[in-house]
Design goal:
Blueprint: H1 3-33, H2 43-56, H3 63-85, H4 91-114, H5 117-138, H6 144-161, H7 169-181, H8 186-203, H9 208-223, H10 231-246, H11 254-265, H12 276-301, H13 318-329, H14 336-353, H15 358-363, H16 367-377, H17 382-398
Helix pairs in contact: 1-2, 2-4, 3-4, 3-5, 4-6, 5-6, 6-8, 7-8, 7-9, 8-10, 9-10, 10-12, 11-12, 12-14, 13-14, 14-17, 16-17
Length: about 400
């Protein structure tokens, strides 16, 4: 036998061995998840976690196993949802079923990330159909953990399908609205806010028909004292995503949004330096404000740069933005993320307004701002370092 034939046979043997090994491992783990005693000693959870690792680290030549496992998970989810739809379960049985739904959702997330785009498009309708049924049963008291996992699974579909997710928006949007309004289960609301950001970044201007409802709910949540405070910085940041996605279409929201952002930016609280939780929250709030302003500037600027007439709607806010950044720059407890956001906003303002910003740069007491940018250039975080260097470059370019 010649050496070429030997190498070919060796490759085939390796491929078959890899495939058989992966198939055997997956089959064993799947059997463990279905054992009658799987709910004891955390066996089912551990088995599903092992399955997710097998999926994540599987070799390319084991793709057929991924395809078959996806079908198994879809079949299991349909079966569980059929049982849950009866509404006759209660107590421990219902909780056990909810835990299983969450595990299958998490496994589906791993699988959808692993399959090819072609296969993702093929299975997406079946996955969305199952997820929509999960959202429907949630009205009958499904676990908030299940809702959160279902929203995260939708997020993975958005990530993989891209603009093709638009096909599902009309049927999915009513459930997204309910999740945004469900601030009592704040983790569900938080997942929904994050998903809005993903949708805006993916669908861009195609989100415009849904923005009135989204903005109304998010603005209400910001002003509602009953809403968990951890959600509010993320809402502010997501407002920036909305602004960037719909561009000039965001101008109808500017009055109320500028008012909200000013109130959040000017929040005066006496912070105990040892209250690390409050220090972190103030930093998160400021980061959210800065990201919102950045999204608005970029959205109003559009592709044509500073000649856009819509950018002038932002002009009255520019002096306040410099005051806000100056105030933040003086804070010794500001986070690295806040520094990066300050630099990003400054760079965008310079890029958008050009020489028209010179007067503001000259009258603003910029020593603290320059110090912030210089410190950021020495940051260990690549993003902060890059943004601060870029902002300094943009500012110097205007002064030439």
């Amino acid at each position: 036998m010649d050496s070429g034939r030997k190498n070919e046979n060796h490759y085939l043997c390796d491929h078959v061995y890899s495939l058989l090994k992966e198939s055997l491992c997956v089959c064993v783990v799947l059997c463990l998840t279905g054992r009658p005693d799987a709910s004891q000693n955390n066996l089912r959870t551990s088995a599903y976690e092992a399955l997710m690792d097998l999926i994540k680290y599987s070799a390319k030549d084991c793709y057929v196993v991924i395809q078959k496992t996806t079908q198994v998970m879809m079949d299991r989810l349909r079966q569980i949802l059929t049982v849950d739809a009866g509404g006759q379960l209660s107590g421990a049985d219902k909780q056990q079923l909810a835990d299983l739904e969450s595990l299958i959702c998490a496994t589906l997330q791993s699988l959808v990330r692993k399959v090819s785009r072609e296969d993702a498009l093929t299975i997406s309708s079946s996955v969305m159909e199952a997820l929509l049924l999960m959202f429907q049963t949630s009205a009958a008291g499904s676990s908030s953990g299940v809702l959160e996992d279902a929203l995260m699974t939708v997020g993975v579909l958005v990530e993989v399908l891209g603009e093709d997710f638009q096909h599902y928006m009309e049927v999915f949007f009513p459930f997204l609205k309910l999740a945004l309004q469900n601030y009592a289960a704040y983790q569900v609301c938080q997942a929904a806010v994050g998903l809005v950001g993903d949708l805006c970044r993916t669908l861009t201007a195609k989100m415009l028909p849904y923005c009135n409802s989204i903005m109304e709910i998010m603005v209400d949540n910001l002003s509602n004292a009953a809403v968990h405070r951890s959600i509010k910085p993320q809402i502010l940041s997501t407002i920036g995503d909305v602004a960037l996605s719909i561009g000039s279409g965001f101008k109808v929201y500017l009055t109320i949004v500028f008012q909200i952002l000013k109130e959040a930016a000017q929040l005066n609280v006496t912070i105990n330096k040892n209250d690390f939780e409050m220090v972190d929250y103030i930093n998160e709030l400021r980061e959210g404000c800065l990201e919102a302003y950045t999204g608005i500037v970029q959205g109003l600027k559009g592709e044509e740069g500073s000649t856009s007439g819509h950018l002038q709607l932002m002009t009255p806010e520019v002096p306040f933005l410099f005051q806000f950044i100056e105030h933040v720059a003086k804070d010794e407890d500001r986070s690295d993320g806040v520094t990066a956001c300050c630099a990003g906003l400054l760079g965008d303002l310079c890029s958008a307004y050009g020489k028209a910003l010179l007067s503001e740069l000259q009258k603003s007491p910029s020593l603290n701002i320059m110090k912030l940018l210089q410190e950021g250039k020495s940051s260990r975080t690549k993003r902060t370092k890059t943004l601060c260097s870029w902002a300094l470059k943009e500012m110097k370019a205007l002064q030439k």
